[in-house]
Specification:
Oligomer: heterotrimer
Number of helices of chain B: 14
Shape of chain A: globular
Largest interface: B-C, 70 and 69 residues
Strand content of chain A: 15-25%
Structural class of chain A: alpha/beta
Chains: A alpha/beta (about 400), B mainly alpha (about 375), C mainly alpha (about 325)
Structural class of chain B: mainly alpha
Strand content of chain B: under 5%
Radius of gyration of chain B: 21 Å
Largest sheet of chain A: 7 strands, mixed
Order of helices and strands of chain A: HEHEHEHEEHEHEHEHEEHEEHEEHE
Helix content of chain A: 40-55%
Number of strands of chain A: 15
Helix content of chain B: 55-70%
Strand order of the largest sheet of chain A: 12-10-9-8-6-7-15
Chain lengths: ~400, ~375, ~325
Amino acid sequence: MTTFRRMLFALLAVCALVLTACASNSASTSSSDSDSSTASETPGTGGSAIGFLYVGPKDDYGYNQAAAQGAAELGEAFPDYEILEAESVPETAEVEQKAEQMISQGAKIIFTTSYGYKDYALNLAEKHPDVVFLQQGNTLEGDIPNNIGTYFGNVYEPVYLAGIAAGKATTSNKLGYVAAFPIPQTLLNINAFELGAQSVNPDAETYTVFTSAWCDPGKQSQAAESLLNQGVDVLTQHQDCTSTITQAAEKAGASVVGYHADASELAPEGWLTGSEWDWGPLYIDMVTTIDAEEFAGGKYNGNYRVGYKKTADDAVDAPLVQSAFGPSVTDETKTEIAAAKEEISTTGSPFAGPVYDQDGNVVIEDGVIPEYSELESMDYLVQGVVGEIPAS
Amino acid sequence: MTVTTTTEPAAPSAAPESPVPVREASPSRAARMARSVGRWVLAYLGALALFGLLAWLKGVNPFEMYMEMWSSTFTSRSAIGEVLLKGAPFILAALAVAVPARAGLVNIGGEGQVVMGTVGAAGAALALESRLAPWAMILVMVLAAAGAGALWAGIAAGLRLKTGINEAISTLLLNYIALDVVLFLIYDRWKDASGFGQPASRPLLSSSRLPLIFDAGRLNIGIFIAIGSALAVWAVLRYTSWGFKLKVAGGNAEAARRAGLSVGALVLSAMLVGGALAGIAGMVHFAGVEGQLRSGITFTFGYVGFLASWLARHDPLKIIGAGLLLGAISVAGDSLQIDAGLPAATVNILMALVLFAVLAAGRRTQGARS
Amino acid sequence: MIVAASTAAGSNLLVVAVLIAGVTAGTSILFAALGETISERAGIINVGTEGCMLCGALGAYAAASATGNPWFGVLAGALAGGLLALVHAYMVLNRGANQLASGLALFFMGLGLTSLFGAPYVSKQVDTFSKVAIPGLSKIPAIGDIFFNQDPLTYLSFVTAPAVWFLLFRTRWGLMLRGAGERGEVLRAYGHSTVKVRYAAVVSGGMLAGIGGAQLALVVALAWFENMVQGRGFIAVALVIFAAWDPIKAMGGAWLFGAALALGPELQVRNAGVNQFLLDALPYVITLVVLIVLARKRLESAPEALADVFEGSRVVSSP
């Protein structure tokens, strides 16, 4: 009898919940009507807030911190907008849930700042025609709705330049790269780094360790140790949190090339240079464009890419910066880097052919300057990289 | 006797409205009920107060925080839908703990079994999606997920029976191995060829996904699968001889053995059923929400399920409520960071406090000595 | 050691490199496992060791940054780990909560608390520990590099393990503690309180786990990051059983696990061509395999009170 009553209670509770869901379903049809009435206006306008979703903690001294820094600059530039932030949002359907909550709080512009958010951003864009979704990284194909766009910078360009500094600095001709997972963005950086080093030092090799985690300092430390024991004398990384490896290199007396953040204070001796994001100006320009009702059909309503090569269409500089040089970088190296930057900014590319893969096959033909979109699904390591990626 | 023996967690009598006092008492029954309810309310309020204090230490106004958490979780259709959506795999993962617990087993491996469930479902879809009708595909995915989850739990059960390794330890280790299985597959064999090199399996066809309950929103029939499973588990444990034998074996294995029960078979079957339920939890999330196998899609589901099962004292019916409660807390947790600006992981404190409150409040109802 | 040697393909260097890294990587796990050994010897299992390690890591990092002295960090780490374990002790010993449930809640608690209070420390820089070669001993080929060219906390672990063993098996306090884990009623008959002994055991367990977290923050990571322990605390709990509740064997277990962790990067830099994710699974597979091989012996040495936690353990312990 009691058990039966308990079961009844449980059932009633669930029914109540489902009913509430149904009831507020019908109630909210009217509100979604009002949504669509604003949708007939320009997407992204009329909101009171701007949402940001980050894939990791926003103070990771890395990728997410860079995006959060951009969000803070955006907030200062647009004091009328409230900045709503959700961190550590996995690349799963959580994205939609968090975004929905931001929308219900008045956000009409949402930045989805991780590569793997794209599919969710697309779903959301379809569901909310009045909200603009700005997807950091990744590529949209086919007909692109008028309320979504992707944007990214060719971060491998400063990584290539840093590779030059590394190639010049090494005496053992062994460079070390600690990466997380063999995804195309990571492979692009590793390859650019090695090609940059090769351009000034044909004997330079890049030893690669994958840690299978974006931020596991224990594994990072082990990877750094293993690389240093192999005689590597320049370390760099593609990780979300970066201070462990930077300090490990400094302690071992090796040089270090940074990523995501200027960590020169952690390695006053060994710091060479690095690559950082500077999202603020681009974020501000995108929101300005949306506010001016010029988003739909504009350059941001597609796959916007910007690197050192700037066209008249690019309102702001590339969202990537080469970090300041450390004390050991010679003037000769700086001049070579400046020359390489000039070339990339005009006619060149870090991946100007010929480029060979690890087996010596030509992957980019001689004389070819590949488009960004061609590089985006990179699935090989170039000649000179020591490391193994799963066959695909 | 030692203090630990005073906890008899698997016993349903740990429930506040325990059947024993209800049956025996007439005069003081109301008073006792009131006391019991009062204690539970106090426990929950205590948890909320402590959490509010922590938030206040971080410069957040606790009253505003709770108002926002409430309004963002229970006042809109989509938010309630999210609670049900999140609650479904929690309920199933909790059942995966509750069934083995009935036989006296500790299944900490829900996490890995849920992951293997997603692997099973994804594997079935990759192999058969083009050849089966949508309804058949969904059915096959459920079976494959249940099979994969049961296999993973079965390893632990087998190790226990063959070598005596405690399932709490082996399932913990198997959790980590399951994650590597997923990574291996999505970076290798199962990587979507047209996915720009990203580590994910080919997306499910929309026809193979769990049907939505409403046209709008994301709420799918997974919640019905979860509640249906809870009712089924309740009925099986209560009305079948298997359920009765599990309880006997869980209560006193030696007595069960003397009574002629095959305790080994019971251990194995309880773990297999638990693993299958966890696997279905993975399938519900994979086919209902994600549609693609990626790393981390069911992160902490198994552990949250463990909490839910303990919140409900392993009672399948109460697990429905506990799963939804934890679903609600995790949805409300979004407001913690979006509105109050606290770190995302803060919600874990609230979950822990609620469980602590329930564990602490549940004690005297068992008549435990101090 | 066996594992490293068999995959070494004759390269002596790999074995040494793996062992050097393995000792460093295993130390945080070793501290936590020693703490858990004390706790479980008294009959209380703490699955929330991971949470204690997280609190220890943050406490250590915060204190080191406030005082500029990493040793204060270690102290604070121990305190933080012990404080969190105190919650577990209270729940289990005073409120009669189930140990496994309370332990898992403790993990969620530690994860949430450290994330809530840890954010300001992510970008802080502190003085950390460096390797200190022990004169003479560090010159011994291979052995010197593996054991005597390490950091102070690793040396501390060399001392702590035998100290815990001595405490447990050669002192009156250890006798009482083991008594609490085996036959509480006997202890009570002699007029001692099992509850007090168990409180002490659980809290010291948490403190050692906290020192493990401190080692991770101040020796390995040189930083604080949210959730940085990444499962090492759970492994420590598994290792206690692996080591049959013996502090000395726990050393071997922790170093074996550490070496298995270190094998991945060492093989990668040697371009061994093994799939990264198979290497990742190796430490867990090795632990499981060793458990299987040693299973029978291990169970017999389990503290009796633990059987009540793993309620069904009776199912197998009688043949």
